[in-house]
Design a protein that fits this description.
Layout: H1 2-6, H2 8-19, H3 25-39, H4 44-59, H5 66-81
Length: 83
């Protein structure tokens, strides 16, 4: 499916973050939800918008390690370039 191919790199990064057990569980749950949204994409523009909103909310978490915030900002940049 072309849509999933568009998000393949993003899904890979999110999966890596999700598997990191040093990340708070509530954050990993939100990451998993974001992965599901990307995998079940029906409308690219809406999916990108939802994903960016969710990632922006995640980045605001003070318990999130800075290296994860950086990865999330990179994903947001990639998504913004697809719009």
């Amino acid at each position: 499916m072309k849509v999933q191919n568009d998000f393949r790199d993003i899904l890979e990064i999110l999966s890596e973050i999700n598997s990191d057990e040093t990340i708070p569980k509530n954050t990993r749950t939100k990451i998993q939800t974001t992965i599901c949204v990307l995998q079940n994409c029906k409308n690219v523009e809406i999916t990108i918008d939802k994903t960016i909103q969710e990632l922006d909310n995640l980045v605001e978490d003070p318990n999130l390690p800075i290296y994860v915030k950086t990865q999330l900002w990179n994903i947001v940049s990639i998504l913004e370039s697809k719009t």
